[in-house]
Design brief:
Blueprint lengths: L1 H10 L6 H11 L14 H10 L1
Helix pairs in contact: 2-3
């Protein structure tokens, strides 16, 4: 699944932050997670990536 996430992001010319990949993998495994990061850092993308798969 990590390879799929990386492929989608790179094909969209998005370079993910480490926390985005980590959080997306946790969400894909069906676990709850709390993400703290600054405004505009891409927290919403962590939620959207698993929804696309």
């Amino acid at each position: 699944r990590a390879c799929v996430i990386i492929y989608i992001l790179t094909s969209l010319k998005i370079v993910p932050h480490v926390f985005q990949l980590q959080a997306s993998l946790v969400i894909l495994n069906g676990r709850d997670t709390v993400i703290t990061a600054g405004t505009g850092s891409g927290k919403t993308l962590c939620l959207l990536i698993p929804m696309l798969l």
